[in-house]
Amino acid sequence: MPNTQGYSAVSHTQSGALAQNKVLRNTYTLLSMTLLFSGATAGLAMVMDMPYPGPILTLVGYFGLLFLTNALRNSAWGIAAVFALTGFMGLTLGPILSTYIAAFSNGSQLVLTAFGGTGAIFLGLSAYAVTTKKDFSFLGGFLMVGILVAFLAGLGGAIFAIPMLQLVVSAAFVLLMSGLILWETSNIIHGGETNYIMATVSLYVAIFNLFVSLLQLLAAFAGER
Known about the structure:
It is a single chain. The chain is mainly α. It has one domain. 84% of the residues lie in helices and 0% in strands. The chain has helices spanning 4-47, 55-71, 77-103, 107-132, 140-159, 163-189, 196-222. Helix 1 (4-47) packs across helix 3 (77-103), helix 3 packs across helix 4 (107-132) and helix 3 packs parallel to helix 7 (196-222). The chain starts with a helix and ends with a helix.
């Protein structure tokens, strides 16, 4: 008598693997598109010489659009919300890039170096997570606490104008965002994240903060005023 239970288990495993690969493929496709769109809006903000909206408006816009994306994550409107979120973040990034380029004689080089470093870190960590298939779910709790502490410390450094604290926070964010890339990619591979829209948002936020943090560190140690 054939072992139907064995066939069923194999079929279920293959089905799960296909679903996870589809989520990963859709995530990377949408992530690539949103990064390009965010870069376009950042470039638009630079060309139009738009002022930085300030931390309060940036946070309100970010968390508001993040809430909207989460609410619409299971519908086609969720994709539109992702583009709205990443486009908005690009608009806030443009004035920051303009400031660095104007403040440092090697500002353009700093931006390109930060861009290249961000790309290398993301591709390297993603490739490692995909090829090794190691489960990095154990990083979840540490990352949540670490990001919250670093975020609050960053606010304190900005409010009280403590440059050294801001550099420490930037270095911490480089490590935390690298960990977030590993954790989210592993989460997709092992079936912990099945919604590619939210996976895209998570990876986009990691890349955005990684880039800004690297740029801040490069400006502090290699910037030529």
